[in-house]
Each structure stands twice: as C-alpha cells, then as structure tokens.
Specification:
CATH architecture of the largest domain: Sandwich
CATH class of the largest domain: Mainly Beta
Number of helices: 0
Shape: globular
Strand content: over 45%
Radius of gyration: 16 Å
Structural class: mainly beta
Number of strands: 17
Helix content: under 10%
CATH topology of the largest domain: Jelly Rolls
Order of helices and strands: EEEEEEEEEEEEEEEEE
Number of domains: 2
C-alpha cells in the first residue's frame, strides 16, 4: 500500500494533558484513541505555543523532531530543528521554547510490542517497507518518491512496498519506521 497525505488535512485535537493541540497523522490500530490510551503507536504533529510539560505515556517510547521554529529545550537540553531525539514516555519532560512557536512531529509507540526509528535524509534513498509501516515526511522542499510528487508538509505512507526517494536540491525528509514485535 502507498498512500499520500497532507499534514494540513489531519484531524486536530488536544494533547493528552490538555496543554496544547496536535494533528493526528495516524494511529494503530485504526480504531484506537489517544483518550483511551489503547494504541500500539501514534504519529502526530504538535504546535507548541508556550513553555509546558509533556504528556506522560508510561510503557511507551517516543521519537520527537522539531520541524519548524528555532527549537526548544527539553529539561534544559537543546533540541534544534531537524535533529531527532528519543526518550521514554514516562519521563517528566519540561519544554521551554527558544524563541517563538515550534511545530514538531512525534511518534509514540509501545516499547514491548513495537520497535521504531526516525532518520533524516537528503539526496536519494531507497525505502523498503516489507514487514513494517514507513512514513516519509517531506520537511523541506520537493521531491519524487517513486512516481509520487511530494511537497513540503506531505506524507507518504508505505506498507509492503519499496520505493526510491529522490529529493531536489536542499529538500529534507524524515523517515519514520515502525515494526510490530
């Protein structure tokens, strides 16, 4: 399966702790909800408007990356744009903005039932999604993924497919991969 999705089309809702808003890109299983905490994994994008504390997700691991904005501090450690960070969901995380608002992308997954990774890519890359779900997000610029033209803010969701990713010029892509144990 290959499916194209625009971040701007994703449904917006409140964070688990109610301190901000997020756009849900995908959740698995599909009938799961954030409120019931009955998912194996969830990919979303949050707009952070002010200093806050992150929602707690005991038993889950998290990948986070700043897509837009100057970055933030997580418990005093700087997280700049396009630099992924991995941490446990039960960690108490205090977030402080460096300047204005930040838009991030985050993957939360059950560490007992899934493994996940996040890589940042430029140039060309072959993406293989044989026994996993892969999300290719175009963070900057434009490019071609197989025969699919992509622009900033587009996702391509892959299951049981292999594609060739070719980014133009200074284009940048985030590749999230999730595999069920």
């Amino acid at each position: 399966m290959i499916k194209k999705l625009k971040l701007s089309e994703c449904t917006e809702g409140l964070w688990k702790n109610g301190q901000g808003k997020t756009r849900q890109v995908a959740i698995y299983p599909h009938e799961a909800t954030l409120a019931e905490n009955n998912f194996l994994w969830r990919l979303s994008s949050a707009t952070i408007l002010s200093d806050n504390t992150f929602s707690s997700f005991p038993g889950f691991d998290r990948w986070l990356i700043v897509w837009k904005g100057d970055g933030l501090f997580l418990n005093g450690k700087k997280l700049g744009s396009h630099s992924p960070i991995h941490f446990q969901g039960e960690e108490d995380i205090r977030c402080t903005l460096i300047n204005d608002q930040v838009v991030d992308l985050g993957l939360i997954y059950d560490r007992e039932k899934c493994t996940a990774d996040l890589k940042v890519h430029t140039g060309t890359l072959d993406v293989v999604a044989v026994s996993e779900t892969v999300f290719v997000f175009l963070a900057r610029g434009s490019g071609m993924v197989g025969k699919h033209e992509m622009h900033e803010g587009d996702f391509l969701i892959l299951e049981n497919k292999s594609i060739h990713l070719e980014l133009a010029g200074e284009a940048l892509a985030y590749v999230f991969s999730i595999k069920h144990s």
